[in-house]
Each structure stands twice: as C-alpha cells, then as structure tokens.
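Hi F.,

I've been meaning to write this up properly since the lab meeting, where we talked about keeping a consistent format for the predictions we share between groups. The idea is simple: the sequence comes first, exactly as it goes in, then the structure tokens exactly as they come out, then a line or two of notes. No screenshots and no reformatting. I'm using this chain as the first example so we have something concrete to point to.
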Amino acid sequence: MKNQNPKIFEKNMVEKSTKYIDVFRKNIDMLMAEYDYTIKETAEIADISYDTLKTFLYDKEAKDCRLSTAVKLAKAFHISIDELVGAGTFKPEGLEGIKAYRSLPEGSKRFLDWQVRNQKFIHEQQNNTKFVNVMLPLCAGNGNMKQTNDYEVLDITRLGDELTYKIFLGIKIPCLHYLPHYTEGDVLLIANDRNALKGENTIVMFNDNIAITNRLVEHGEEHYYGLMDGRLRSLDPKQFQVVGYVAKILRA
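Output, unedited:
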C-alpha cells in the first residue's frame, strides 16, 4: 500500500543552498522514500522518462536537468520548485505559512481559501466601503451546517466603524432548524477580537461542519456546547477551530 497522504519530514529537507542540483537529488530521494515510490513510479506520475530520472538522480556526471523536468517533479510531490531545489526565494514566514497550510484538514483549507479571496477583494476596493464575504453553507440536519465554497459579498459599511473593523466574515443560515434563535436567511456576522461573552454564540468548525455553540469555561477549560442539542463539540485541535463570536445578526 503506497503512502497516499504522507506527512513529509520537512525538517529533514534542505531548504536553502547554493548547490541546487545536490539538494534537488537529496530531496527527491527523501520524497520518494516518504511516498514509497520507486523510480519507475515517480517517473510515471511525473510524466517523465525513467532513464531521464534515473540518470539525473544517480549519474554524478549529470550536472543539470531541464526546467520542465523540475516542474513536473514538484507537481508530482505537491510542493514548490523553491522547496524542491532549496533556492530560498520565499521569505521564511511565507514558507512557514505554506507548510502550515498543507498540514491542515480540507475543511480548514477551504476556510482559508475563502478568507484569502475575501481579503483580496477588500484590498482592491478604492473607497471606504467595507465588504465581507458571507458563506452560504448547507443544512446538515443534525444541528450543524456543512461548509461550502459558495459565498456572496455583503456591504456592511452602514453598521459603523465600531462593528465593521471587527467583523471579518458572515454566515447565512440555510434552514429553519435554528428557530427560535435564528431563521432561514439570517446572516450571522462574525468577529474574533475576543472570546464570546455570556449570551453570545460562538461559531466553531470541525471537519466540514459549522456549529453554532455556547462557550462555557468549566474548571478553567473552555467547552463548546451545540446551541440546539446541547452536545459538547469535539475539541480535537487537529480538527476543531474556533472561528469567532456572533457580533451582529442581520435578520432576513
């Protein structure tokens, strides 16, 4: 069984060097071992010839390879050419962010993708209008909502500076399951400048779920209970993410 979702030992990869070819070879060897790929399998996945890859890896007389070969190998292992050859063109914080992104579950990646699009949209505006993206989740029917990549843009300028500087996203309620608290079409505007206060709801995400919860501190520890069913939501740090509190409700 091949390792389809390897946890790359990135601390062992050479990240910055002027001996690019030596680093390239070392990192390819390490990645093939981590994925449990043979040279032949790697060549097939990267769509390059077996002889080309074998010569590049083990013939010390081979001093270089084509750029197209490097690109194909980087794509095969889902990393950047910069990381593969140790060029060091990324700023350290940028490379750290890329590595952190790769380690996240898919739900968190979608959330970050959405946030990046939102930030790009905001910074492209040429006036003082404040917009946020509003996610359009699906109703899961179990007290949760399902994350999607669908969203709409909402102008929140009229809410005033006190709120608009804090709010960074919105979530539109997709169904009637949250009555009498929220109804279908209500938009929950979310901020995360502080923890939720008593009486405020907290939005959490785990796996592909969005849950509206009540935050309670018990014996010095935070716990999040579902608004509708009172169930304690998972606190697995690899899956569980506190998004923020409901700062404002725009009623349908």
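Notes:
The helical segments are 20-35, 39-46, 50-58, 67-76, 81-85, 92-102, 106-123, 161-164.
Strands lie at 131-135, 138-139, 144-146, 151-155, 167-172, 187-191, 201-206, 209-218, 221-226, 240-250.

If this format works for you, I'll send the rest the same way.

G.
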